[in-house]
Protein backbone atom coordinates (compact mmCIF):
# COMPACT_ATOMS: atom_id res chain seq x y z
CA UNK A 1 0.00 0.00 0.00
CA UNK A 2 1.00 3.61 -0.29
CA UNK A 3 0.52 4.08 3.42
CA UNK A 4 4.17 4.95 3.82
CA UNK A 5 3.62 8.14 1.83
CA UNK A 6 1.21 9.52 4.40
CA UNK A 7 2.31 8.04 7.69
CA UNK A 8 5.51 9.89 8.52
CA UNK A 9 4.01 12.41 10.87
CA UNK A 10 0.80 13.67 12.42
CA UNK A 11 0.47 16.64 10.15
CA UNK A 12 -0.15 14.62 6.99
CA UNK A 13 -3.62 13.44 6.00
CA UNK A 14 -4.08 10.38 3.84
CA UNK A 15 -6.37 10.64 0.78
CA UNK A 16 -8.93 8.55 2.69
CA UNK A 17 -9.02 11.16 5.46
CA UNK A 18 -6.94 9.24 7.98
CA UNK A 19 -4.07 10.32 10.19
CA UNK A 20 -1.98 7.18 10.14
CA UNK A 21 0.26 8.13 13.04
CA UNK A 22 -2.79 8.38 15.27
CA UNK A 23 -4.07 5.05 14.00
CA UNK A 24 -0.72 3.45 14.72
CA UNK A 25 -0.86 4.87 18.23
CA UNK A 26 -4.24 3.18 18.71
CA UNK A 27 -2.55 -0.07 17.64
CA UNK A 28 -0.20 0.31 20.58
CA UNK A 29 -3.24 0.31 22.83
CA UNK A 30 -4.54 -2.86 21.19
CA UNK A 31 -1.21 -4.55 21.91
CA UNK A 32 -1.40 -3.84 25.63
CA UNK A 33 -2.78 -6.51 27.92
CA UNK A 34 -6.50 -6.41 28.50
CA UNK A 35 -8.28 -4.24 30.99
CA UNK A 36 -11.99 -3.81 31.39
CA UNK A 37 -14.49 -1.84 33.40
CA UNK A 38 -18.18 -2.14 34.20
CA UNK A 39 -20.59 -0.14 36.28
CA UNK A 40 -23.85 -0.44 38.13
CA UNK A 41 -25.99 2.26 39.71
CA UNK A 42 -23.78 2.26 42.78
CA UNK A 43 -20.35 0.89 41.86
CA UNK A 44 -17.67 0.74 39.19
CA UNK A 45 -15.29 -2.18 38.91
CA UNK A 46 -12.01 -2.27 36.97
CA UNK A 47 -10.40 -5.63 36.13
CA UNK A 48 -7.04 -6.06 34.42
CA UNK A 49 -4.69 -8.81 33.43
CA UNK A 50 -1.16 -8.01 34.52
CA UNK A 51 1.73 -8.96 32.26
CA UNK A 52 4.99 -10.40 33.50
CA UNK A 53 7.91 -9.52 31.18
CA UNK A 54 9.78 -12.66 32.30
CA UNK A 55 9.79 -15.27 35.05
CA UNK A 56 12.25 -13.13 36.97
CA UNK A 57 10.17 -9.98 36.83
CA UNK A 58 7.23 -8.69 38.80
CA UNK A 59 3.83 -8.06 37.28
CA UNK A 60 3.18 -4.69 35.68
CA UNK A 61 0.46 -2.78 37.54
CA UNK A 62 -2.33 -1.49 35.37
CA UNK A 63 -4.59 0.43 37.72
CA UNK A 64 -3.80 3.70 39.39
CA UNK A 65 -5.74 5.73 41.91
CA UNK A 66 -6.25 9.32 40.83
CA UNK A 67 -8.24 10.48 43.83
CA UNK A 68 -10.59 8.90 46.36
CA UNK A 69 -13.41 9.02 43.84
CA UNK A 70 -11.53 8.20 40.65
CA UNK A 71 -9.15 5.62 39.22
CA UNK A 72 -7.77 4.56 35.85
CA UNK A 73 -6.86 1.29 34.17
CA UNK A 74 -4.33 1.50 31.34
CA UNK A 75 -3.55 -0.39 28.15
CA UNK A 76 -0.55 0.46 26.04
CA UNK A 77 2.68 2.29 26.81
CA UNK A 78 2.99 2.37 30.58
CA UNK A 79 5.42 5.27 30.47
CA UNK A 80 2.88 7.43 28.63
CA UNK A 81 0.23 6.29 31.09
CA UNK A 82 2.33 7.53 34.01
CA UNK A 83 2.52 10.98 32.47
CA UNK A 84 -1.26 11.14 32.12
CA UNK A 85 -1.72 9.68 35.59
CA UNK A 86 0.49 12.36 37.12
CA UNK A 87 -1.38 15.04 35.21
CA UNK A 88 -4.76 13.77 36.37
CA UNK A 89 -3.60 13.53 39.98
CA UNK A 90 -2.24 17.05 39.95
CA UNK A 91 -5.45 18.40 38.45
CA UNK A 92 -7.52 16.64 41.10
CA UNK A 93 -5.36 17.96 43.93
CA UNK A 94 -5.57 21.52 42.63
CA UNK A 95 -9.31 21.27 42.16
CA UNK A 96 -9.72 19.94 45.68
CA UNK A 97 -7.52 22.72 47.06
CA UNK A 98 -9.48 25.45 45.31
CA UNK A 99 -13.04 24.14 45.51
CA UNK A 100 -12.88 21.76 48.47
CA UNK A 101 -14.69 19.09 46.46
CA UNK A 102 -13.94 16.27 44.05
CA UNK A 103 -13.06 16.95 40.45
CA UNK A 104 -16.04 16.11 38.23
CA UNK A 105 -15.10 13.01 36.27
CA UNK A 106 -16.24 14.06 32.81
CA UNK A 107 -14.43 17.35 33.13
CA UNK A 108 -11.11 15.68 33.89
CA UNK A 109 -11.53 13.18 31.06
CA UNK A 110 -12.14 16.13 28.77
CA UNK A 111 -8.90 17.73 29.95
CA UNK A 112 -7.02 14.51 29.22
CA UNK A 113 -8.63 14.28 25.79
CA UNK A 114 -7.69 17.86 25.05
CA UNK A 115 -4.09 17.15 26.04
CA UNK A 116 -4.07 14.04 23.86
CA UNK A 117 -5.50 15.87 20.86
CA UNK A 118 -2.80 18.47 21.14
CA UNK A 119 -0.22 15.79 20.42
CA UNK A 120 -1.97 14.84 17.20
CA UNK A 121 -1.70 18.21 15.57
CA UNK A 122 1.99 18.92 15.63
CA UNK A 123 4.90 17.92 13.45
CA UNK A 124 7.25 17.60 16.35
CA UNK A 125 5.15 15.47 18.69
CA UNK A 126 3.69 12.01 18.80
CA UNK A 127 0.35 10.90 20.26
CA UNK A 128 0.23 9.21 23.66
CA UNK A 129 0.40 5.46 23.10
CA UNK A 130 -2.03 4.54 25.83
CA UNK A 131 -5.78 4.12 26.26
CA UNK A 132 -7.32 4.77 29.65
CA UNK A 133 -10.45 3.44 31.25
CA UNK A 134 -11.43 6.12 33.74
CA UNK A 135 -13.77 5.04 36.52
CA UNK A 136 -15.22 7.74 38.73
CA UNK A 137 -18.11 8.83 40.90
CA UNK A 138 -19.37 12.39 41.22
CA UNK A 139 -22.67 14.13 41.96
CA UNK A 140 -23.70 13.44 38.34
CA UNK A 141 -23.53 9.73 39.01
CA UNK A 142 -21.36 6.71 38.35
CA UNK A 143 -19.07 6.95 35.31
CA UNK A 144 -16.85 4.84 33.10
CA UNK A 145 -14.98 6.60 30.30
CA UNK A 146 -12.53 5.45 27.67
CA UNK A 147 -9.86 7.79 26.29
CA UNK A 148 -7.91 7.23 23.08
CA UNK A 149 -4.60 8.46 21.70
CA UNK A 150 -6.69 10.30 19.11
CA UNK A 151 -8.10 12.60 21.75
CA UNK A 152 -11.58 11.12 21.57
CA UNK A 153 -13.37 9.99 24.67
CA UNK A 154 -16.54 8.02 25.20
CA UNK A 155 -18.70 7.13 28.14
CA UNK A 156 -19.63 3.48 28.59
CA UNK A 157 -21.75 1.14 30.66
CA UNK A 158 -18.95 -1.38 30.30
CA UNK A 159 -15.91 -1.58 28.05
CA UNK A 160 -12.79 -3.64 27.48
CA UNK A 161 -9.57 -2.48 25.79
CA UNK A 162 -6.29 -4.17 24.97
CA UNK A 163 -5.42 -7.50 23.43
CA UNK A 164 -8.24 -10.04 22.91
CA UNK A 165 -10.66 -7.48 24.34
CA UNK A 166 -13.27 -8.42 21.73
CA UNK A 167 -13.97 -11.62 23.62
CA UNK A 168 -14.68 -9.64 26.77
CA UNK A 169 -16.86 -7.18 24.86
CA UNK A 170 -18.88 -10.08 23.47
CA UNK A 171 -19.49 -11.29 27.01
CA UNK A 172 -20.59 -7.79 27.97
CA UNK A 173 -22.99 -7.55 25.04
CA UNK A 174 -24.80 -10.60 26.33
CA UNK A 175 -25.06 -9.55 29.96
CA UNK A 176 -24.73 -5.79 30.35
CA UNK A 177 -28.50 -5.37 30.71
CA UNK A 178 -28.13 -6.89 34.19
CA UNK A 179 -25.31 -4.67 35.42
CA UNK A 180 -27.33 -1.64 36.44
CA UNK A 181 -28.92 -3.45 39.36
CA UNK A 182 -26.04 -5.80 40.19
CA UNK A 183 -24.48 -5.86 43.59
CA UNK A 184 -20.77 -5.19 43.96
CA UNK A 185 -19.98 -8.88 44.27
CA UNK A 186 -21.96 -9.74 41.13
CA UNK A 187 -20.22 -6.95 39.27
CA UNK A 188 -16.80 -8.26 40.24
CA UNK A 189 -17.74 -11.78 39.17
CA UNK A 190 -19.04 -10.53 35.83
CA UNK A 191 -15.81 -8.61 35.33
CA UNK A 192 -13.67 -11.62 36.11
CA UNK A 193 -15.83 -13.82 33.87
CA UNK A 194 -15.30 -11.40 31.02
CA UNK A 195 -11.58 -11.36 31.76
CA UNK A 196 -11.53 -15.13 31.67
CA UNK A 197 -12.92 -15.08 28.13
CA UNK A 198 -9.97 -13.02 27.01
CA UNK A 199 -7.07 -15.10 28.25
CA UNK A 200 -5.17 -17.63 26.19
CA UNK A 201 -5.81 -21.37 26.51
CA UNK A 202 -2.69 -22.09 28.52
CA UNK A 203 -3.14 -19.13 30.84
CA UNK A 204 -5.21 -19.05 33.99
CA UNK A 205 -6.43 -16.30 36.30
CA UNK A 206 -4.77 -16.17 39.69
CA UNK A 207 -4.24 -13.59 42.42
CA UNK A 208 -0.87 -12.59 40.97
CA UNK A 209 -1.81 -11.73 37.42
CA UNK A 210 -5.26 -10.26 38.05
CA UNK A 211 -5.88 -6.77 39.37
CA UNK A 212 -9.32 -5.68 40.51
CA UNK A 213 -10.19 -2.19 41.71
CA UNK A 214 -13.54 -1.10 43.08
CA UNK A 215 -15.23 2.26 43.54
CA UNK A 216 -18.57 3.01 45.06
CA UNK A 217 -20.75 5.90 46.14
CA UNK A 218 -19.68 5.17 49.71
CA UNK A 219 -16.51 3.35 48.82
CA UNK A 220 -13.22 5.06 48.11
CA UNK A 221 -11.12 3.46 45.39
CA UNK A 222 -9.39 0.37 46.68
CA UNK A 223 -7.66 -2.67 45.17
CA UNK A 224 -8.77 -6.14 46.19
CA UNK A 225 -6.01 -7.85 48.13
CA UNK A 226 -4.54 -11.26 47.28
CA UNK A 227 -6.89 -13.22 49.54
CA UNK A 228 -10.00 -11.50 48.24
CA UNK A 229 -8.86 -12.10 44.66
CA UNK A 230 -8.34 -15.80 45.40
CA UNK A 231 -11.85 -16.05 46.84
CA UNK A 232 -13.50 -14.35 43.88
CA UNK A 233 -11.58 -16.39 41.34
CA UNK A 234 -12.66 -19.52 43.16
CA UNK A 235 -16.29 -18.34 43.03
CA UNK A 236 -16.04 -17.96 39.26
CA UNK A 237 -16.44 -21.72 38.81
CA UNK A 238 -20.00 -21.69 40.04
CA UNK A 239 -21.07 -18.22 38.92
CA UNK A 240 -24.06 -18.24 36.61
CA UNK A 241 -24.07 -15.03 34.59
CA UNK A 242 -27.77 -15.10 33.84
CA UNK A 243 -29.07 -15.52 37.34
CA UNK A 244 -26.03 -13.79 38.87
CA UNK A 245 -26.04 -16.27 41.71
CA UNK A 246 -23.74 -19.11 42.62
CA UNK A 247 -25.16 -22.40 41.49
CA UNK A 248 -24.03 -25.75 42.78
CA UNK B 1 4.86 87.69 74.92
CA UNK B 2 1.38 86.35 74.58
CA UNK B 3 0.00 84.45 71.56
CA UNK B 4 -3.30 85.70 70.14
CA UNK B 5 -5.99 83.05 70.54
CA UNK B 6 -6.71 82.83 66.82
CA UNK B 7 -3.03 82.25 66.07
CA UNK B 8 -2.49 79.40 68.48
CA UNK B 9 -2.57 76.81 65.67
CA UNK B 10 0.50 78.02 63.80
CA UNK B 11 2.64 78.16 66.90
CA UNK B 12 2.42 74.48 67.62
CA UNK B 13 4.22 71.78 65.61
CA UNK B 14 1.16 69.56 65.43
CA UNK B 15 -2.53 69.97 66.09
CA UNK B 16 -3.65 70.37 69.65
CA UNK B 17 -4.17 66.86 70.97
CA UNK B 18 -7.90 66.54 71.57
CA UNK B 19 -9.88 63.31 71.95
CA UNK B 20 -11.20 63.55 68.42
CA UNK B 21 -7.80 63.68 66.77
CA UNK B 22 -5.75 61.28 68.84
CA UNK B 23 -4.94 58.18 66.77
CA UNK B 24 -3.32 55.14 68.32
CA UNK B 25 -0.97 52.88 66.35
CA UNK B 26 -3.25 50.04 67.36
CA UNK B 27 -6.10 51.46 65.30
CA UNK B 28 -4.16 50.58 62.18
CA UNK B 29 -5.69 47.67 60.23
CA UNK B 30 -4.00 44.34 61.02
CA UNK B 31 -4.11 41.24 58.85
CA UNK B 32 -4.04 39.13 62.00
CA UNK B 33 -6.89 38.18 64.30
CA UNK B 34 -6.45 36.02 67.31
CA UNK B 35 -9.32 33.55 67.44
CA UNK B 36 -7.78 32.13 70.61
CA UNK B 37 -8.72 28.94 72.38
CA UNK B 38 -6.50 26.25 73.81
CA UNK B 39 -5.10 23.02 72.46
CA UNK B 40 -3.07 20.32 74.12
CA UNK B 41 -1.55 16.97 73.27
CA UNK B 42 -0.11 14.17 75.40
CA UNK B 43 1.86 11.20 74.06
CA UNK B 44 1.98 7.85 75.85
CA UNK B 45 3.33 4.48 74.73
CA UNK B 46 0.85 3.14 72.21
CA UNK B 47 -1.33 6.24 71.82
CA UNK B 48 -1.50 9.98 71.61
CA UNK B 49 -4.32 12.14 72.94
CA UNK B 50 -5.01 15.51 71.34
CA UNK B 51 -7.58 17.96 72.63
CA UNK B 52 -8.83 21.39 71.74
CA UNK B 53 -11.69 23.54 72.90
CA UNK B 54 -14.27 24.45 70.29
CA UNK B 55 -14.72 28.15 70.93
CA UNK B 56 -13.62 30.80 68.47
CA UNK B 57 -13.47 34.36 69.68
CA UNK B 58 -12.51 37.77 68.45
CA UNK B 59 -11.64 40.08 71.29
CA UNK B 60 -14.49 39.92 73.76
CA UNK B 61 -16.90 38.38 71.26
CA UNK B 62 -17.63 34.75 70.58
CA UNK B 63 -17.70 33.87 66.89
CA UNK B 64 -18.83 30.28 67.33
CA UNK B 65 -19.05 27.64 70.02
CA UNK B 66 -18.62 24.77 67.68
CA UNK B 67 -15.42 24.95 65.59
CA UNK B 68 -12.77 22.25 65.55
CA UNK B 69 -9.12 23.11 66.12
CA UNK B 70 -7.99 19.59 65.29
CA UNK B 71 -7.25 18.14 61.88
CA UNK B 72 -6.25 14.56 61.17
CA UNK B 73 -3.61 14.67 58.45
CA UNK B 74 -2.69 10.98 58.18
CA UNK B 75 -3.87 7.80 59.89
CA UNK B 76 -1.23 8.42 62.51
CA UNK B 77 -1.04 12.13 63.11
CA UNK B 78 -3.19 15.10 63.99
CA UNK B 79 -2.55 18.82 63.75
CA UNK B 80 -3.86 20.97 66.61
CA UNK B 81 -3.73 24.73 66.15
CA UNK B 82 -4.48 27.79 68.24
CA UNK B 83 -4.29 31.29 66.84
CA UNK B 84 -5.88 32.64 63.71
CA UNK B 85 -8.50 30.32 62.31
CA UNK B 86 -8.13 31.44 58.72
CA UNK B 87 -4.43 30.63 58.84
CA UNK B 88 -5.22 27.25 60.41
CA UNK B 89 -7.54 26.46 57.49
CA UNK B 90 -4.97 27.58 54.92
CA UNK B 91 -2.20 25.60 56.61
CA UNK B 92 -4.38 22.51 56.92
CA UNK B 93 -5.35 22.67 53.24
CA UNK B 94 -1.73 22.98 52.19
CA UNK B 95 -0.71 20.01 54.33
CA UNK B 96 -3.58 17.83 53.16
CA UNK B 97 -2.74 18.48 49.53
CA UNK B 98 0.99 18.02 50.02
CA UNK B 99 0.53 14.81 51.98
CA UNK B 100 -1.76 13.31 49.35
CA UNK B 101 0.92 14.06 46.76
CA UNK B 102 3.48 12.41 49.05
CA UNK B 103 1.28 9.34 49.22
CA UNK B 104 0.97 9.15 45.43
CA UNK B 105 4.71 9.51 44.94
CA UNK B 106 5.88 7.23 47.73
CA UNK B 107 2.98 4.74 47.86
CA UNK B 108 2.87 5.03 51.63
CA UNK B 109 1.57 7.63 54.07
CA UNK B 110 4.07 10.11 55.47
CA UNK B 111 5.43 9.27 58.91
CA UNK B 112 4.81 11.65 61.80
CA UNK B 113 8.42 12.78 61.73
CA UNK B 114 8.13 13.60 58.05
CA UNK B 115 4.96 15.60 58.57
CA UNK B 116 6.60 17.43 61.47
CA UNK B 117 9.48 18.57 59.32
CA UNK B 118 7.19 19.46 56.41
CA UNK B 119 5.14 21.66 58.73
CA UNK B 120 8.25 23.40 59.99
CA UNK B 121 9.45 24.19 56.48
CA UNK B 122 6.06 25.46 55.42
CA UNK B 123 5.86 27.78 58.44
CA UNK B 124 9.35 29.12 57.79
CA UNK B 125 8.57 29.68 54.12
CA UNK B 126 6.32 32.43 55.43
CA UNK B 127 9.00 33.94 57.64
CA UNK B 128 8.18 37.49 56.54
CA UNK B 129 4.40 37.25 56.72
CA UNK B 130 3.88 34.40 59.16
CA UNK B 131 0.96 32.09 59.63
CA UNK B 132 -0.54 33.30 62.90
CA UNK B 133 -0.76 29.75 64.14
CA UNK B 134 0.58 28.09 67.25
CA UNK B 135 0.72 24.45 66.37
CA UNK B 136 1.03 21.09 67.97
CA UNK B 137 1.57 18.07 65.80
CA UNK B 138 0.67 14.89 67.66
CA UNK B 139 1.07 11.40 66.31
CA UNK B 140 2.46 7.90 66.53
CA UNK B 141 6.09 7.40 65.60
CA UNK B 142 7.52 4.39 63.78
CA UNK B 143 7.31 2.33 66.99
CA UNK B 144 3.69 3.37 67.58
CA UNK B 145 4.80 5.44 70.54
CA UNK B 146 2.92 8.72 71.02
CA UNK B 147 4.94 11.85 70.22
CA UNK B 148 4.14 15.54 70.26
CA UNK B 149 5.90 18.29 68.35
CA UNK B 150 5.41 21.91 69.42
CA UNK B 151 5.92 24.88 67.09
CA UNK B 152 6.15 28.62 67.21
CA UNK B 153 4.65 30.81 64.48
CA UNK B 154 7.66 30.57 62.20
CA UNK B 155 8.38 26.88 62.42
CA UNK B 156 10.86 26.31 65.22
CA UNK B 157 9.93 22.91 66.59
CA UNK B 158 10.94 20.29 69.07
CA UNK B 159 9.74 16.90 70.18
CA UNK B 160 8.00 16.73 73.55
CA UNK B 161 5.95 14.22 75.51
CA UNK B 162 3.18 16.75 76.05
CA UNK B 163 2.44 20.26 74.81
CA UNK B 164 -0.06 23.08 75.17
CA UNK B 165 -0.72 26.06 72.91
CA UNK B 166 -3.17 28.94 72.88
CA UNK B 167 -4.70 31.41 75.25
CA UNK B 168 -4.85 28.93 78.12
CA UNK B 169 -1.28 27.75 77.63
CA UNK B 170 0.23 29.12 80.85
CA UNK B 171 -2.68 27.89 82.95
CA UNK B 172 -2.66 24.36 81.58
CA UNK B 173 1.01 23.68 81.06
CA UNK B 174 1.73 24.31 84.73
CA UNK B 175 -0.81 21.63 85.64
CA UNK B 176 0.71 19.15 83.19
CA UNK B 177 4.24 19.87 84.43
CA UNK B 178 3.02 18.97 87.88
CA UNK B 179 0.93 15.93 86.96
CA UNK B 180 3.00 14.35 84.21
CA UNK B 181 6.56 15.32 85.12
CA UNK B 182 6.15 15.60 88.84
CA UNK B 183 7.55 19.14 89.06
CA UNK B 184 6.82 20.67 92.44
CA UNK B 185 4.85 17.58 93.32
CA UNK B 186 5.01 16.20 96.81
CA UNK B 187 3.26 12.86 96.16
CA UNK B 188 4.87 11.67 92.97
CA UNK B 189 2.10 9.53 91.57
CA UNK B 190 1.54 9.69 87.82
CA UNK B 191 -1.46 8.78 85.69
CA UNK B 192 -0.90 5.29 84.35
CA UNK B 193 -3.82 4.36 82.17
CA UNK B 194 -5.31 6.04 79.13
CA UNK B 195 -8.47 6.74 81.09
CA UNK B 196 -6.52 8.61 83.76
CA UNK B 197 -4.84 10.74 81.13
CA UNK B 198 -8.24 11.43 79.58
CA UNK B 199 -9.58 12.57 82.96
CA UNK B 200 -6.51 14.76 83.37
CA UNK B 201 -7.18 16.40 80.01
CA UNK B 202 -10.82 17.08 80.89
CA UNK B 203 -9.73 18.57 84.22
CA UNK B 204 -7.17 20.79 82.51
CA UNK B 205 -9.73 22.20 80.12
CA UNK B 206 -12.24 22.76 82.89
CA UNK B 207 -9.58 24.66 84.80
CA UNK B 208 -8.62 26.71 81.78
CA UNK B 209 -12.26 27.50 81.05
CA UNK B 210 -12.65 28.84 84.60
CA UNK B 211 -9.92 31.45 84.31
CA UNK B 212 -9.47 32.10 80.59
CA UNK B 213 -12.36 33.89 78.90
CA UNK B 214 -11.37 32.62 75.50
CA UNK B 215 -11.57 28.94 76.41
CA UNK B 216 -14.84 27.12 76.87
CA UNK B 217 -17.99 25.70 75.22
CA UNK B 218 -16.80 22.16 74.41
CA UNK B 219 -13.61 20.19 74.46
CA UNK B 220 -12.97 17.83 71.57
CA UNK B 221 -10.53 14.99 72.17
CA UNK B 222 -9.00 12.67 69.56
CA UNK B 223 -7.26 9.49 70.68
CA UNK B 224 -4.93 8.11 68.01
CA UNK B 225 -3.92 4.48 68.36
CA UNK B 226 -2.47 2.00 65.87
CA UNK B 227 -5.95 0.55 65.43
CA UNK B 228 -7.72 3.82 64.70
CA UNK B 229 -8.98 7.13 65.94
CA UNK B 230 -11.56 7.75 68.63
CA UNK B 231 -13.34 11.07 69.11
CA UNK B 232 -14.85 12.35 72.34
CA UNK B 233 -16.64 15.65 72.90
CA UNK B 234 -17.41 16.96 76.36
CA UNK B 235 -19.10 20.20 77.37
CA UNK B 236 -17.29 23.04 79.12
CA UNK B 237 -18.41 26.29 80.70
CA UNK B 238 -20.23 28.48 78.22
CA UNK B 239 -19.55 31.86 79.86
UniProtKB/TrEMBL annotation, chain A:
PROSITE patterns with a match to the protein in the record: PROTEASOME_ALPHA_1 (PS00388), PROTEASOME_ALPHA_2 (PS51475)
Highest taxon listed in the record's lineage: Eukaryota
Primary localization class, coarse: cytoplasm
GO BP term, example: proteasome-mediated ubiquitin-dependent protein catabolic process
Record-linked CDD domains: proteasome_alpha_type_1
Cellular component terms (Gene Ontology): cytoplasm; nucleus; proteasome core complex, alpha-subunit complex
Location of the protein in the cell: Cytoplasm; Nucleus
Pfam families, per the entry: Proteasome, Proteasome_A_N
Keyword Nucleus: yes
Positions of the Proteasome alpha-type subunits domain: 6-28
Keyword presence, Nucleus: yes
Sorted UniProt keywords: Cytoplasm, Nucleus, Proteasome
Family named by the database record: Belongs to the peptidase T1A family.
Subunit structure: The 26S proteasome consists of a 20S proteasome core and two 19S regulatory subunits.
Cited PANTHER family: PROTEASOME SUBUNIT ALPHA/BETA
Protein name listed in UniProt: Proteasome subunit alpha type
Organism per entry: Paramecium tetraurelia
Organismal lineage: Eukaryota, Sar, Alveolata, Ciliophora, Intramacronucleata
From TrEMBL, chain B:
Entry superkingdom: Eukaryota
InterPro entries named among the record's database cross-references: Ntn_hydrolases_N, Proteasome_sua/b, Proteasome_suB-type
GO terms (BP aspect): proteolysis involved in protein catabolic process
Subcellular location(s) of the protein: Nucleus
Major localisation: nucleus
Keywords: Cytoplasm, Proteasome
GO CC, any one term: proteasome core complex
PANTHER family documented for this protein: METALLOPROTEASE TLDD, PROTEASOME SUBUNIT BETA TYPE-1
Protein name: Proteasome subunit beta
Species assigned in the record: Paramecium tetraurelia
Organism lineage: Eukaryota, Sar, Alveolata, Ciliophora, Intramacronucleata
Amino acid sequence: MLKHLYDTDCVTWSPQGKLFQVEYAMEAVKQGSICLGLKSNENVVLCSLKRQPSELAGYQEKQFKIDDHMAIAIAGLTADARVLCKYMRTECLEYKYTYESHHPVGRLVFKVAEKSQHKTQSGAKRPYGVGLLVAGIDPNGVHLFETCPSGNYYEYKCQAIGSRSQAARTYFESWFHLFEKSTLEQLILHGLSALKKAIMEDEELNERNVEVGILGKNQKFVHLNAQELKDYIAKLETFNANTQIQQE
Amino acid sequence: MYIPVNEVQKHFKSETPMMSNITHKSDQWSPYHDNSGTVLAIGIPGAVLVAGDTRLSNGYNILTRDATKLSQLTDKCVLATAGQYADFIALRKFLQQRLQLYEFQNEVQASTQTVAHLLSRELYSRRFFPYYTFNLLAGLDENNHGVVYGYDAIGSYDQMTYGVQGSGQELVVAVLDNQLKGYNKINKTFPQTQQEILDLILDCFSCAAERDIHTGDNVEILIITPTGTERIVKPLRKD
